[in-house]
């Protein structure tokens, strides 16, 4: 998978400054991320606007089960690793955890597949408004915790 790293893979080098993803005009969302895009055995259902430092991508598996992946800025300060990292991006499974929770294997594989899709399309640069996982927890932890409790 090239620059795509799994939890067990080595840390990747930082992306050169100024490297920006190809994006849809005005949104900052990589062009390849649109409803209906297939990657492996998954498909993009919905791409939400960047909110609280993350870009949420709702994904459908082959059986039609829906789950969410969150694209955040790649960072090296947190010991908790996302299932996939590519370029300036880290792809997390949105499972209500704190970065230490176990990831459902199928969803982790989907995160790696999405990273590969972005890499193959040259859309791995920084996306405006994204935060690293650590920065997101600091900035929005109270809101994020409340969303999963209630």
Concise description?
This protein has 150 residues and is of the alpha+beta class.
Structure description:
The protein is of the alpha+beta class. The protein has one domain (38-149). Helices cover 22% and strands 20% of the residues. It contains two helices and six strands. Strands 1-2-3-4-6-5 form a six-stranded antiparallel beta sheet, covered by helices on one side. The radius of gyration is 14 Å and the shape is globular. 31% of the residues are buried. The model is unreliable at 1-27 and 146-150 (pLDDT under 50).
Distance between the termini: 38 Å
Note the beta-strand portion: 15-25%
Radius of gyration from CA coordinates: 14 Å
- Count of the domains: 1
Q: What number is the mean pLDDT?
A: 79
| Uncertain segments | 1-27, 146-150
Q: Tell me the major beta sheet.
A: 6 strands, antiparallel
Comma- or semicolon-separated keywords:
150 residues; globular; 2 helices; 22% helix
Question: What is the topology?
Answer:
Blueprint: E1 38-39, E2 42-47, E3 55-60, E4 66-73, E5 84-86, E6 89-93, H1 105-120, H2 133-149
Antiparallel strand pairs: 1-2, 2-3, 3-4, 4-6, 5-6
